[in-house]
Specification:
Length: 232
Amino acid sequence: MTVIKSEKLRRALSVVIPFVFIPAVVLSGVLVFRSKNYSYGIFAVSVLSVLLFICGFDRRKTGTRRLVLISAAVAMACVGRAICSFIPAVNPITAITVLFAVYLGSEAGFMTGAFSALISNIFAGQGVWTPFQMFAWGMIGFFAGVFAKYLENHTVRMCVYVFFAGAVYSFIMDVWSVMWAYNSFNLKFYIASITSAAPYTAVYAISNVVFILLLKKPFSEKLGRIKIKYGI
């Protein structure tokens, strides 16, 4: 796999990509392209997610192993979303993304969340909302990696994190809802959107906690052993 050799460049891209490039792509997609060509945003966010992942490892040749684990995480997240599709506002993507991010790092967490959104939307429905979902779940994974040492061995902290992550996901998607409807951001309508979506947000946040309680122990045991064995 291609490696970015410059440490300074990798560090710079690890910040600029998730906080500048991807948000710019997501916003331009809804404001400029709208429904005419939303595939632009999906493709751009996908490429940037891969580039961010490449920035996350050095020349220790652990990138391929991490990529295999990310593929497994995305597959599990997609299957879980499909199984839970009959229950409104419930799916395991946030929980699985956070668990893998804690053990594989921020960049891997972003890629897991982003591609879980992209691939699961093959059956859930692609649209102009997909780049926003990729960004929202990606950033949830990114920050889980940032705070990994505070979350790894603390179930309560992880439950608190995924609970608020569920709310943040909803808030980000409400930004899309308002901008899509009015072609600009309006605080009044944004607050109204958050308020109307509160029951779904609460269900999603609570379901994230349930998934963490169910999945943390088996996932942590296996990922912990893999992390030590392969030095990931």
